Amino acid sequence: MRCLRWVGLLVLLAVFMLTIGCSPAKEPERKPTVALRTASSEVSVGEMFTVDVVVKQVKELASIGVKVKYPVEKLEVTELDRDDSWLSSNGGTVQQMEFSNNAEHGYVKIVLGIFPASKYVGDESQTEHRIASIKFKAISVGDAALDLSIDNNEDSDLGIFDSHANLVSDVVDEDLTINIR
Question: What is the pTM of this model?
Answer without folding.
Answer: 0.84
